[in-house]
Design a protein that fits this description.
Blueprint lengths: L5 E3 L2 E3 L6 E4 L6 E5 L6 H17 L3 H17 L2 H8 L5 H20 L10 E2 L4 E2 L7 E8 L4 E4 L7 H13 L3 E4 L5 H14 L7 E3 L16 E6 L1 H8 L2 H5 L4 E5 L4 E4 L8 H15 L11 E5 L3 H13 L19 H15 L3 E4 L21 E4 L18 E7 L2 H9 L7 E4 L3 H11 L6 E4 L34 H5 L2 E8 L1 H8 L28 E3 L3 E2 L2 H11 L4 H4 L16 H12 L7 E12 L8 E13 L10 E11 L5 E12 L6
Parallel strand pairs: 8-9, 8-11, 9-10, 11-12, 13-14, 13-18, 14-17, 16-17, 18-19
Antiparallel strand pairs: 1-2, 3-4, 5-7, 6-7, 7-20, 15-16, 21-24, 22-24, 23-26, 24-25, 25-26
Helix pairs in contact: 2-4, 2-5, 3-4, 4-5, 9-10, 12-13
This protein binds NADP nicotinamide-adenine-dinucleotide phosphate.
The site of NADP nicotinamide-adenine-dinucleotide phosphate has 26 residues, from strand 11, helix 7 and strand 12.
Length: 683
């Protein structure tokens, strides 16, 4: 029988030896073997650094984002085939949807994130720092892709999502990846990687795959690499203290098991919408993916007066969970990933039972729909109650990675907060409440211990993404026990794979380095008005200095009439006592409009439209009699792709609009966003 492939050094190879047998979770039938025997991991990591890294790091964020989008579209077009493979892991259709389409959705989200980055291979972080009185010496921060490789060591539960949620981020940052899925379900990751490699959408070396044990993988990590780990806290701690991680100071991001909690608010009595939502959410989190979700609810924290009602309603719901082979119609909960996992979950339940009482699932499973009860990795949902949660702490420490959860009673909100925190750090917590004071108190009281908090109520339930779903643009990770990581979640995730370097020099030099005009930098003569130039012809720093205009009382009156903005400071000279104004002041928006009147070159040309403003400030009052002029400077350029063949080829030009008065002082400053046609319409 063929083994699961490893994609390394530009080719597919099978490891030597017999390999580890991989079996179908529902019936124990052999699927394949996995082996990494004979693979030189040092060579693999080096290949990524030497081949994949240079190819990715020279691409701009926009190019990388478009590449990720192309990959997402490609994988989406063939998604059905992964479902067939996914069923073998014990995952139902819904479980597989989370894994496959959730994973691809992550690629889409990160591809869109490119719009938050410049049209450069590097990123300029934050605002410049003024370091001198005369503004001839400033500081800034530049972030460049690390020159190493992202090593992703993943857990078995989401073989696709686990890979895609991570590589989307490192690819956007310009860093290649070596993915090491958990051996148990690596055949599903492999199925998708085969399509990724075949598509040639990623440059060679951007992605390598190791399916099988990789105990010595970290022996050759280097200081420019980044390691991410998802799995059990024990393995995570062991790997985090690997001598090479320490000696090379390699960033190590860990996402480990966490004892996530969900709280029923003190207002959410039985019969309220929030009570029903709570029961539904807990049931879902217990049974989706057979409870093998790092974000699953392990602790159900409930007002003590409603413990019985929660137990009854939850048990009734769990009763409806049909268990079996996910390929069989009507199955709502599949199998654990393997027999070993069943044993482990049972051991954890036994630990919890030392003090807690099982109130549902004590009889195990009597029948399954399809599958093989003996050879399959089936398990019943198990609901427990821990009545003394302050004394018996196993419930806050022992994670049974399956459909297992424990009800915990509380008396008041302080107790609920304290209990939630006894998990010592979790990926997510949720609270069902329609009382926003409770929501606020819980959030502020416990946010220090969670990576994410969901507040569930009747207003948001319909569109809520749920307790268990990390969102690509929000932090995924959590403090303490959850591993202390947060390398995903929007722009902050991408930065994790980049090196921040402070740069200091003159505004002119820093403008050239960053390709963002820095205030105080020398102006360049554009030769003609900027609005007459096409996208490719414009250069950062090119400036037009306009003619001037004197503001009159009539301007202020007229603008008030046109806009209906009759705020007292513009209209009533007698009302200005105790304000910062000496006279009737011109509307800030008028100054900006008047600036447009000065800097716009009216005739039809390459400028297609103005679509907004960023960072607008009115820095000094303008009174009638003041004379204003504008310095219009090309601040930054962002290339845009054509949406279709007949789309106009164009890019975004950000202009710095500096409005100054007769003293030369700036009175208003803003960045305007324009779309400018390209000379070459074929691009
Ligand atoms: P695990 O046993 O800790 O394994 C995780 C990964 O580490 C696997 O790929 C495993 O490879 C690898 N590994 C183990 N020892 C290694 C070593 N010495 N060197 C290099 N790699 C090594 O965890 P699991 O059983 O797969 O996953 C279940 C756990 O993951 C649960 O506790 C769950 O809470 C946690 N989890 C957390 C998150 C999160 O986001 N926080 C997400 C999912 C799962 P092999 O398979 O080859 O042994």
């Amino acid at each position: 029988m063929n083994k699961v492939g490893n994609y390394i050094l530009g080719q597919w190879t099978e490891g030597a030896g017999d390999g580890t047998p991989l079996v179908d979770a529902s019936n124990g039938q052999l699927i394949s073997y996995a082996s990494t025997e004979g693979i030189d991991f040092g060579q693999v990591l080096d290949y990524s650094r030497k081949k994949g890294n240079p190819a990715l790091r020279k691409m701009t964020f926009q190019e990388r984002g478009r590449m990720i989008k192309a990959l997402a579209l490609h994988l989406f077009s063939m998604k059905d085939k992964y479902y067939t493979v996914s069923y073998q892991t014990g995952a139902t259709k819904i479980d597989s949807w989370i894994d496959i389409e959730g994973g691809i959705g992550n690629l889409f989200a990160n591809a869109s994130l490119r719009k938050k980055f410049p049209d450069q291979p590097y990123y300029i972080d934050g605002e410049h720092a003024p370091l001198s009185k005369g503004n001839t010496f400033i500081g800034h921060h530049i972030m460049v892709p690390k020159e190493g490789v992202a090593v992703h060591i993943n857990a078995f539960n989401f073989p696709i999502w686990g890979m895609l949620e991570k590589i989307a981020v490192n690819l956007l940052a310009g860093v290649p990846a070596v993915v090491k899925p958990a051996t148990l379900t690596s055949y599903l990751t492999e199925a998708m990687v085969r399509d990724i490699i075949k598509s040639k959408i990623l440059p060679e070396g951007a992605l390598q795959l190791i399916c099988g044990s990789a105990r010595t993988l970290l022996d050759s990590v280097e200081s420019q690499d980044v390691v991410t780990f998802t799995g059990s806290a024990d393995t995570g701690r062991m790997l985090k203290s690997h001598p090479r991680i320490i000696s090379e100071a390699v960033p190590f991001n860990m996402e480990a098991d966490s004892l996530n909690s969900s709280i029923l608010g003190l207002d959410a009595a039985p019969g309220t919408a929030e009570f029903d939502l709570f029961i539904k959410e807990v049931r879902k989190e217990m049974t989706v993916k057979c409870g093998q979700k790092c974000t699953a609810i392990r602790r159900i924290i409930v007002p003590e007066k409603w413990v019985e009602e929660v137990q009854l309603q939850l048990s009734a719901q769990l009763q409806k969970t049909t268990i079996g082979d996910p390929r069989v119609e009507g199955v709502r909960m599949g199998a654990l990933a393997g027999k070993e996992q069943v044993k482990e979950v049972q051991e954890r339940i036994a630990e919890l039972r030392k003090t807690a009482k099982v109130v549902y699932g004590d009889n195990g499973i009597l029948k399954v729909l399809g599958g093989d009860l003996e050879k399959g990795a089936f398990i019943s949902p198990v609901l427990l109650i821990e009545e003394k949660p302050f004394e018996n702490t196993a419930v806050h420490e022992v994670e049974a990675f399956g459909p297992v959860s424990t009800i915990i009673p509380y008396k008041n909100l302080d107790e609920a907060i304290q209990l939630a925190k006894m998990g010592k750090g979790s990926l997510v917590s949720s609270i069902a409440t329609y009382d926003n004071n409770i929501a606020r108190e819980y959030t502020l009281g416990s946010a220090s211990h969670h990576g994410r908090i969901l507040i569930l109520n009747r207003d948001c339930a319909k569109e809520s993404t749920g307790h268990g779903s990390p969102m690509p643009l929000l932090v995924h990770g959590g403090p303490g026990r959850a591993g202390g990581g947060e390398e995903m979640g929007g722009v902050r995730g991408v930065k994790h794979y980049m090196q921040r370097c402070a740069i200091q020099g003159s505004p002119t030099t820093l403008s050239e380095i960053t390709q963002q005009y820095q205030v105080g930098g020398k102006y360049k003569d554009p030769g003609q008005h900027l609005f007459r130039k096409h996208f490719e012809e414009l250069e950062v720093g090119e400036t037009v200095i306009t003619h001037k205009r004197t503001i009159t009382e009539a301007d202020i009156v007229n603008f008030g009439n046109v806009s209906w903005d009759h705020f007292y400071a513009h209209t009533d000279e007698t009302s200005l006592d105790g304000t910062i104004f000496e006279k009737r002041v011109a509307h800030g928006y008028f100054i900006l409009s008047a600036a447009a009147g000065l800097f716009v070159d009216a005739a039809k040309g390459p400028v297609l439209l103005n679509y907004g403003l960023e960072e607008c400030r009115f820095t000094k009052p303008v009174y009638a009699g003041a004379t204003i002029g504008v310095r219009l400077t090309v601040k930054e350029k962002v290339d845009q792709e054509k949406r279709s063949e007949d789309d106009i080829a164009k890019g975004i030009v950000k202009y710095l609009v500096d409005v100054y008065d007769e003293t030369g002082e700036t009175v208003a400053i803003a960045t305007i966003l324009t779309m400018v046609k390209k000379l070459d319409q074929s691009q």
